[in-house]
Amino acid sequence: MKVLGIIPARYGSTRFPGKPLAQIHGVTMIERVYRRAKLATSLHEVFVATDDQRIYDHVVSFGGKVMMTSDQHPSGTDRCAEVVAKVKEAYDVVVNIQGDEPYIHPEQIDLLVSCFESGDSELATLIKRISLVEELDQVNLPKVVIDNSGKALYFSRSVVPFTKPEARSQAVEQGMYYKHIGIYGYRASILPELAALPKSKLEILESLEQLRWLENGYSITTAISNHENLAVDVPEDIALIESRFTVSD
Asked: What is the pLDDT of residue 228?
């Protein structure tokens, strides 16, 4: 099974313009993500996919592989589809690695790829058990409900499954709630299909791209990660991450 890792990187983030080039302990975020991704033993190659010449030139400067892509892509999935269409080699699986998680664990990438050892997996993503009750009401932390085989049933920014407020603590202790970790794996053969899908009703309501795939009949395999992920959404997050990690991490 040949696996390609792709890190979509836009310059024009609404809340944090130029985010991929922001420095964390003296190293840019995109370089940190790239270096961490290269440590994953399951990936045969890693590309940064960008629409900005500044990011392109920077990746080249630290020896990374990068591809210029359209500035019209509405999502990272669409950007990944363009890369797959352009690369010379054929890949079985593509991993969409978030470019704003500078300390992503390589083991998480390998865990995601392991989902495709089963021949029926079309798409895959990671989830983590929620351990804090206060996380349930965080709208920027999507929740996910899974079936008995680990396939995703639904993603929501709301509390799913519903539980009466007085019973939430017990439900969390029992491991009833999962949060979504935004890393995706796709069978390379279905990427063109996914990129061609129009936005769906549930996707628009929840602002969650993965609902488009579920609404159109695709299955999403999940794997449970024990690692906590820290993403950079706004400039203030840089100081938080620098306080959690050292220069050598």
From this structure: 85
pLDDT at 159: 96
As a whole number of angstroms, the distance between CA 226 and CA 112 comes to 13
Q: Which residues contact 42 (CB under 8 A, 6 or more apart)?
A: 3, 109, 110, 113, 114
Q: Which residues of the chain have pLDDT under 70?
A: 248
How confident is the model at residue 64, as a pLDDT?
98
Contact 27, 242 (CB under 8 A): no
pLDDT of residue 79: 94
Residue 28 has a pLDDT of 96
- Residues contacting residue 128 through CB under 8 Å, at least 6 positions apart: 178, 179, 181, 224, 225, 226, 227, 228, 229
- Domains, the chain: 3-244 (3.90.550.10)
Residues 6+ apart with CB under 8 A from 199: 74, 212
Q: How far is CA 206 from the centre of its chain?
A: 17
Give CA–CA dist 117/69, Å, rounded: 30
Q: Tally Cβ neighbours within 10 Å of residue 169.
A: 11
pTM of the model: 0.94
Count other Cβ atoms within 10 Å, centred on residue 221: 21
Closest CA to 213 of 144, 123, 149, 143: 123
